[in-house]
Amino acid sequence: MSVQTQGTDTAGEPAVRKARIPGPPRGADRDSGSPSRRGAAAPYLLLLPALLATVVLLGWPLVKNGMLSFQNLNPRQLIQHLTEWNGVDNYRQVLSESEFWHVLERSVFFTVANVVLIMGIGTLIGLLLARLGRRMRLLLMVGLVLAWAMPYVAATTVYQWLFAQRFGVVNWVLDKLGWHSMADYNWMGSQFSTFSVVILLIVWQSVPFVAINLYAATTTIPRELYEAASLDGAGAWQSFTSVTLPFLRPFLYATTFLEVIWVFKSFTQLFAMNEGGPDHLTETLPIYAYVEGVGNQHFGVGAAISFLTILVLLVITSYYLRMVLKQEEEEL
Q1: Which in 42, 166, 214, 238 has the greatest CB count within 10 A?
Q2: What percentage of residues in the chain have a pLDDT greater than 90?
Q3: Are the beta carbons of 213 and 251 closer than 8 angstroms?
Q4: pLDDT grade, residue 1 (50/70/90)?
């Protein structure tokens, strides 16, 4: 920056000279104390408490669980305060048992069945909310929120009463409708019927989240797009596939990803309903880890199973994310 000042040269005539006003030294904006640097660091400083809480509450238990999975920890070691490292023996023992692979296969099918039903029913109810009137929409949303807010143990207790063998409401209704053989049917007596009740419970608890969030996503779609599609002669199905679905696709991807995680690690409903019975036929990986670790007091083996559960979940979610990213690249 410069300013002009008048002076007199040797001939007596005024001359114009330029005087330079000193500015800030070069590199001052890169100084650690400059406002620009402090502004750039502000988001990281705001995230620091959450990162510290995550490390303390999630990271450290995960590290301890990983260390425990390489130890031989049974009641004797707990009483004598011994630490016996056995390398990968716990993992070798778990992976060599056929029971683990049966439980893994059961867990995958259980997750797929739940997620398909949750996303299908939740999407339909969400689209229904977008088309209902104000009063009916409010009434339906209140019902969804009440179902979603009910605690897991309380909801499981209600379903146990509904499907009770002697005094259950479901058996009484089926008997009155003409299915007299269902009057004293034991819903917890077989693998299929137990899984059916648990899947119905989990779907009932999870559908409200999908439906309400999908309805919220539909409110962001510009109405002008539907008007343009209507002028082009598009019907209801064509408007859905060309306007609604492209806007909802990112939401569907994210919600499916969350549902896979939540359903795969479901523990409370299965354990509270029948403790993984009958004959351990409804055990999934979380229940299997609990039974081996806490129930049989093989804590090292239970830790190894829980760590393998995390790895399986990471593999499933990474495959899903890879598929989603590949599809998004194709669309671009």
Answers
A1: 214
A2: 37
A3: yes
A4: very low
